[in-house]
Amino acid sequence: MPRPVKKLEKLEMVESRGLPPLKNKAKKSVSWSPQEKFSEQPPKFFQRQKSSIEEEVQAIEVQAEVKPPKKTGSTQPTPASSSSSSSSDESLSSDEHHSEVRDNFVADVSTPIPEQPNRRTSRIDSLKGLGGSRSLSRQLSSRYVDHLRDESAQANAAFQEHQERKNKRNRMADILVQDQNHADDDEAYDFFTKNWDDLGTTKHDQEDEEDGDEEDGGEEAVGNDDTKTLVKDVIGQYGYEWTITEKEVKSKRSKNADKDLCFVPSTVQAETNLKLNPNEKVRFLEEEGIYIGDPPFVPSRIQNKMENRILHEYLDGWRQGEQKRWFGQNGKLLALPNPILSHSTRPGEPEDLDPTLETVYCAPHKPGPNGEPAGTNIPGSGLNQAMPGLVHCFLEVDILTIVFHHHHLFSLEHYLASKLRERFADYQEILYRKAKLDLDRRIRVLYDAMTELKEKLEIAVQQKEREFQTRRFESYRKEVKVIREQRDEESGRERATIKEILTLWRTMRDIRRRQGYQSTNLKLTIHKENASLIDDQTQWEQELTREVDEARDDYHDNLEFLTKEYEEELRHWKQIHDMRKAAYKRHKKMKKDSEKGIGSAEVDEIAKDEELLASPEPEKPQPPGRFDEEHVRKMLEEKARQTRRPPGETILTLELSQSSNIDKDVQDNRETSRRHSLSKMKIFVKLFFNGKEVCQSSTKHIGEDFTVPIAQIFPLQITQWPETLKVQIFEGTKLKTSFLSEISLPICESDTVLDKADVNIIPFQSTSRVKHDNSGVGSCVDFSANGDGSSITSQPTHGKVFVRVGWGRTSDGTILSPPAEKWSPPKSRMYGQDPLEDITDVNGRIESAKLDVWMTKNEIDPMDPKNQDLMDRVLEAGKSNVDRPDSNDRNESSNSGSGYAPTLQGGGHFRLDDYHDQFLLGTSSAIENNPRFQMLKLRSSQVAEFKNYRMIPINDKEIPRGIFESLKKPSLGSKQGLLDTEPLRQKFKTYLEQLREEVNHNFAIARHKKRHCDVINEVPLPTSGTMAMLFGEMVPAQRPLKPYRFPRPKIILLDGQDLKILISVVRAFDVPVRNDMDPLQSNPSLQGKNHREESIHGMKENLVRSFVEVRFQGQCQKTPVAPGPNPAWNEEIEFTFKSPNNDFSSDTLNRIKDNLHLHLFDEVAVDMLEDEEERPREVHQRFERKWLGSLAIPFVTMYRNTRIEGTFKLHSPPVLLGYERTGQTSMASGFWRENTDMDQPPKEATYLSIYLTINPPLSNPEPIKEKLECEEDDNLVRHCEKWHRDLMSKFPNRVFSPMVADLTGKSVLVTRYFRAIRPPHDVLENNDQNPEKVAWFVALIPYLPRNALFPGIQAIWPTCEQFIKMMVGSEVEHAVLMTNYFTSLGKKAYLVLGQGIPEGQTAYVLTAEESGQHWLWNVVTGEHFNTSETFCPLVGVTAVANESNVWGNVQSSDAPNRMKWDLTNGSDWTPLFGSHLTLPDLSSVQPTQLSTSQPDQRAATTLKDKIEKKIKSHISSLRKRLKLGTPLNFTVAASLKRLLPALESNRGGIAEGRILATEHLAELKSASAAYKICGFPLHFGYSHMDQIVEALEATGVHLNREPGVEFAVAVHVEPFPQTVMSVWIYVASLVRRR
Amino acid sequence: MESGTTVFLLSVTGQIASADFPGMNDLYCKHCFVAGQDWAVTGGQEEGISQIARASLDGQRRIVWNFPLDITFRSTSPFGWPQIVISVFEMDSFGNEVIRGYGAVHIPLSPGTHNAKIPMFVPESSSLIQRFTGMIMGKRPEFVDARVVANGEGRDVTRVNSQGWVKVQFNIITKDLKRLGYEHSAQGANSEVKNQGPSEGMGLLTKTNGSGRSKAKANEILAGDGDEEGEPDNDRRVSNDQSSVQNMN
């Protein structure tokens, strides 16, 4: 870049010496005025210290804070030593120097130290080149003194001029100008393309050149190199720090230099004359008729700018012709025509594609012969290859005739004629074969030979010869047999054919006679030849005798063998017979024994005997009979009569000729109409080459004899390998044509010419059904074959095509075929037929019989490995055909995908996917069997167990064993379930699974569809409220002391983090106290301690020392013991949550079925002290725990709510033997709020206060907010949304949308879910309309938390029908069902949605009782609460709904006991339908009636037995682990059992309260006299066996270590409709009192 | 958990070198790695947050973090190859943290040193008025989860605006990749990915060999040292290869 600058400015520099430094300075400090500079600067140039200048420049360049010593020098002028010319030169060079040095610097830094010698030589080079300028400067220098004075003026002017220019220019312009002026093309090219690393060296060259200049101008300084040190060196010498300060420069630049440096091109159109060469005129080529394309559109503003910029940059360097680079002759910027076409050259894709044009997958093409892919071009041929001398391939197809063997326009006569012709052809063939084989003669010769041989045999003496002759004789005999058989067959066939022909002819003759005309020209001539009876007779006899002889010989030969066989069989039979006899005896004895009841027998033996006796006795074999000559003779004669001409029968010879005439005028209307339509019927063919239609023949009439002479040769010039050649035959009248049939033509060898080609006779058949009114018989239509109504038959149109195929030939005789070495016709099409057609039946399935024929015909070698696949298929096909004999069904079954037999429909060709395998990763079986692939597949298909599986091992062996078992389990389990364990619910389970799948499918798309707010966090659209908040934020809250609760942020758990569950067990209320009704209470040894306690305190309630045990995922912790009926523990317990696979994704967490169990136990100290004497000194006790109640909280509930807090009712048995409640105590103790209505009996329950949370809190997946498909009225939907929004804005935590999603993923208005449904009949046995009974029934339906039911999807409401079919559901389903039942009972029932404990979001049922109270029904337990009750598990009410309306709770409190329940009050409840919108008439989604199955008493009994067995075995196995025995007491069990039905009828005491306990005690009185009984009944709505076992285990009954403890178990199962089972289990441990 | 599993290792070191956000100052960045299910981190930090950096005062206004990355993955399958997700925030004058860019790029597949230039983008406000309030309140729209930029789901609902660039340098070492049958051909020095112009949404990856680096360094010093005028020109004139190198650093 510096060089051009130099040359350009040289001219100015000659005159203005002061300029260059100014330029330098201008950069650094613009504040300097030109005058100042001028006064200051010139002296600097006189000084000869070039190095100092350099240094200065360099120093300036790097902006180092170095004050080089040259500063002093520069201020002092040193005039004498140099001339003005040299100074101007100097100035010039120093100007250059500036840039040069800078570059030098750049170079020096970027590349290592440049080599000095090089520099010098190059400098010398440049010196030589600059001789001219040197002489000029010499001249100037001589006049230095004279000009000294003018200089100031000149310099001033020059400076100003320069300044002006500088303002106009920016750097870029400079560069361009330089390029334009000096840089030759190569350099310019280099400039952009050369590796910039070379920059340094090129700079050196330039620098050297400059050096030359300046040396020339002043002196040839020898020490130049020494002084020309680099800045780095200088700075290094001085030891200065490299502090880079740019600030100063930058600020200067930004202030003023911008103006100088920036050029803003104007947007005004530039003058045209500027753009052209001065001597040129504007030409408009377009007007002159020269084509100029449309230039691309550029806004004129931009274009003007560009033009101005170019003009500006070229202003100085404007040269002749230069504008040509940029501007055209019309004064516009040169531009190529717009490359973008205004219209599309490709047809656009139509919006909805024609279904016939749809893309379908085709398997890769079968390769053509010799490995050439089918359909590919024949090399060297083809029209597209315009090569000289290319090979044209002409395939010529000559379609000669089409002969119909049946046509729908055949009259009956025609049909018969055609049959006759067929038969006659057979006959002729038989005759021909007969003549050819001449079996009669051969057999005669053989006979002769045999007789001869026999004679020889007789006279043969030598043993050897004898043997030889015998062998010969044997072989003859065999041959004779074969030939005779053949002959018999042939002659039999001949006779049959003759017979048939004669019958046909007779029928035909009859028909002709009957109809009175003749429409065919066939005529059968029968030649008779009388045979001599005697000759025949003798021959016949001879033959028979021979045969009999032979048969006799055969018999004798075989006799030995047969006897042997007989003996063998007899022996075998005898054996079996004996065995049977023995077995029978044993059996009889055993029967007697069993009747008497004595003896024993091995089970196996009995079974064996029975089996033996059951099998039928084998028949006794018969010995081989003697040879019965008469019989044999008769048989042979019979046979001969059938096949051979009987003696004396006339010999018939037939001759068929077309000699008779067809009657032209026929009276029969039907016949005339037939002939008429036949005359109109035309036939033409289409020729298809490689599946593409190429030619069509002209239409031809069908002649009277139903032959169509097409006689057309179709020459095809082909460019592709011929693969298929097909002919389609069409028939029809002028207006209507119909497709008849398609046939494949064989493609000939490459040396076959048409003239020499054989005529191929190819049969065709059409399956189309045609019926005529005329005398035509139609095709595929039943008709009577002999015209009198008998022998009904039908015929498809069929016939034969006579065709020749050959290659074309040029005039000089060369065959126009593909080269022989590359072409051979496809082998499999030998017969010109699609082989598939040969072997398939009408349905496109392989027929094994046809396949066999085809295989023998084509001589498929089954041992050829190439045919392996085919043979396998054939085997399979054969098998499957056997499997499915019903051929009509086959098609459907194969379409449904279950059929394995290869189907040929829909392109399912079994052999044509040759290359398919190559595109597969592996064989499908390999992928199937690879566990890793399988896992990957399962994971990607989102199977629950694998969905979040991390790090699937790369090696198969590392995959954990048995990982797939869980997957297979369902199917296995279902099988098992059907067999034994769960026959009850299998149906429902499968239904649930189906539903789940369906729901997942329905919601999968919705879930993946994200909305803006799911992805992007954004400030919501400001409303007045948020705006206020926005400004309110600026003023902080004025109540700093008001506590504010920050919600813990919910997080997504990452790997490696622990999830903890924190439980704080606070206290319990109303724990039952011990109440042992021991009649022998005074026994001090057992009850001493307790007794004493009681006597001391005098209070019963101290008789309980309870603790809480918490179990979770096998972990177990407990609180310390606290005494009394209202204990307080305040104990914190922590668990670590373990997730399967360490997977903490919400999906998995939602599936976790673990429950947190809290069990309340009483700790009983059992005195073990044996010796009463020791008592004062020793304590020997054993603690025992007695279960009092428990509470289960599902993990999913914790997960969803994060925090569960409250007082929970413990699930405790209605009766606890040995314990009683002291309800009044708790009432008195003040924990209970005053009950307003005292007519309600106090609750019999124990309550437990806990606080439960998980840490860290986990974020829950948001429910799908996606606007689901909705069938409701738009207006309604909008109204619902508005209602919902209004409610939510006021009470953000009361969220309920009146639109809920149903199982199909549509949103439905919630009121549609309500409709009075009659409860099952059996629930309301006595028409007592007891709602409690209904509630009990509903509560017995198994419960599953919401998110476990449909994991990952919330707020789906199945209908009652679906619910009852699933037989499991969450609160909402229960509640909806209960509401509907209640409504049908005539109650006012509502669905209440709100917050409950422990389940969180829940649903209750609200009923308005007659007494004016409102009851809330817990749908899962069946209990009901008064709205005014304290310990109602429903803690918050959001909305209430029934079939007519939805009410949102707008009261300040949402606790049921603090709310007003008058739904009509608008200030308390805001209805959805009211003033704005009345409820539209909506149909309910519920059915009017639920079909429920009858209660199944039998199932209940089996279930009862099963449960009993299971419990007993479980207890004993648990105790076995403790090394304890499990004796069962049946007496107590029986009495317990008696108690259970009462419990059921009382519905677990919900109805009657505490009366039960006394009842129980009364019942057990006798037992309790002998035993200390501790037991309780448990109740379940049956869902699963494990649930029962788990609950039982949790009670710890089995832990009784008392020696001699006995157990009593009683089970009662009450069946309800729809297999709902109420299970009662009474478990008691009995300790014998001493 | 599966200690006995055969895995291959991918070690990533490097740094989030600098960023180029015209007109913005006081930026910091967060990064995290997103990998598929078959990937696990054996060592190193999966997430990080950098210091707040001011733009340099030279013409380039470069924001330099030089925030180190060091992480090792182990994996059984290349499916879900890890990506680095970078989100850049600005501290505005009110002290609000405003999102200035999201970007992601796959960790290079082949061992060696790679430079990535990641184009950044931010989601746009869905309406003008929201844009206005967002500007006032200093709450520009953000992605709920920055990992969105590493996968394709849910992007169809967003509109984004391009911002600046973040330059990341990766040094990759793999172990056992070949042994487990995975090969990547991009091994030699020829594999250098040339600057193909800014492709929207994808980070640019270039691989540098040793000499290139030293040259680049030299250029960097040069660029940092001065020649304020030359810089824009240089960028244009220097051959493609080098400019990319220079930009990378």
From TrEMBL, chain B:
Residues 188-198, 240-249 have a biased composition (Polar residues). One of its GO terms (cellular component) is MKS complex. Residues 188-249 are annotated as: Disordered. Its main location: cytoplasm. The keyword Metal-binding does not apply. It comes from the Eukaryota. It holds the Pfam family B9-C2. It is found in: Cytoplasm, Cytoskeleton, Cilium basal body. This is B9 domain-containing protein 1. It comes from Tigriopus californicus (Marine copepod). The lineage of its organism: Eukaryota, Metazoa, Ecdysozoa, Arthropoda, Crustacea.
